[in-house]
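User: structure tokens for Chlorophyll a/b binding light-harvesting protein, please.
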Amino acid sequence: HIVTEPFSWVKQAVIFSGDAILSYSLAALSLMAFISCYFLAYNTTVFPTEFYGTYRQGAVAIQFVLGLVFLGGHSWHALRARSRGGQLNEGDSLRAVFAGFLTLALLVAGLSLIS
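Assistant: Done. Predicted tokens:
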């Protein structure tokens, strides 16, 4: 991957900048945190009660908040990469604001369901 060039369709679809690559990584971390929330909350085979106890909602809440922080970082750096590349218009900005409010709503709903 260091020596070879990406395909032409990849060059058109993917933004190659520091912010964009960080955005992709933060999206993957966010996905892993949300999947980990589910496993930590309900899977007693992977997280046995002998080691982690029966009350694991605190750990689930921390994973959920970290997942939302990573998701917010993904959105922020994706917007920065698109704005620096000249690909950001007013509609994209409006969708980003809506996504931010939706993320906050998910945070409130998730934390209220966990507690």
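User: Anything notable?

Assistant: The mean pLDDT is 83.
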